[in-house]
Design brief:
By secondary structure, the protein is an all-alpha fold. The chain is built from eight helices and no strands. Helix content is 62%, strand content 0%. The longest helix has 25 residues. The protein is elongated. The relative contact order is 0.11.
């Protein structure tokens, strides 16, 4: 873009346009079928414009996955900090993860299939963000099921999130509107946490 004096300055929204275009193309065609030129054209950027923001398609992938992890972390922090009962907080964490997996399943697939192709420093950073996210769940589950060790709670949380993410691996044939409730019930079965409607005195975990 240009100022009134004719001096060119970088459009601060162009990077986001590139990421949005990349996300939409990957969702429709798959990561490996999309080129940088395709992404630039979809974002309305010609020539070397994309390279002013991203040096490679891999760099766009890193930015997309970073964006996803920070969105999940921000949502988890908001939910955990809401001051609600632990059972309601856990229900909200499950619901947020289900919504992400159902609505943005291509990003789940992208992470699962491509994270190993990234430079080690990026993989380690993304894994660290993932651990922070899991720990939010572990802390809440520990409050509901104090009989669990940290290792047990962590394994259970991974199982619950993995069950939710299974929607990205196959086509169940179920209508989209049925999937959230089913995935939520499976995740809660993994967690075996008390339902939010149960009296507080009964929230002591399984016998």
């Amino acid at each position: 873009m240009s100022t009134a004096e004719g001096v060119r300055v970088r459009d601060p929204g162009r990077r986001d346009k590139i990421l949005q275009a990349a996300a939409e193309l990957v969702a429709r065609r798959g990561y490996h079928a999309v080129s940088l030129a395709d992404i630039g054209a979809a974002a309305g950027i010609v020539g070397s414009g994309v390279y002013r923001h991203f040096t490679s398609k891999s760099a766009i992938l890193v930015a997309l996955l970073d964006q996803v992890m920070h969105r999940l972390l921000d949502n988890a922090a908001r939910i955990v900090g809401s001051g609600q009962d632990d059972a309601l907080v856990l229900e909200a964490l499950v619901a947020d993860q289900v919504a992400f997996a159902v609505n943005d399943r291509y990003l789940v697939r992208l992470y699962q299939r491509e994270v190993h192709t990234l430079p080690e420093s990026d993989r380690r950073r993304l894994r660290r963000l993932q651990r922070h996210y899991v720990e939010e769940w572990v802390h809440v589950l520990g409050g509901l099921r104090p009989e669990l060790t940290d290792g047990e709670a962590r394994a259970i949380v991974h199982a619950a999130i993995g069950a939710i993410h299974s929607v990205a691996s196959y086509d169940s044939g179920l209508p989209p509107h049925q999937q959230p409730a089913l995935l939520g019930s499976v995740a809660h079965a993994c967690l075996r946490a008390p339902a939010p409607s149960e009296p507080a005195a009964d929230r002591r975990g399984p016998a």
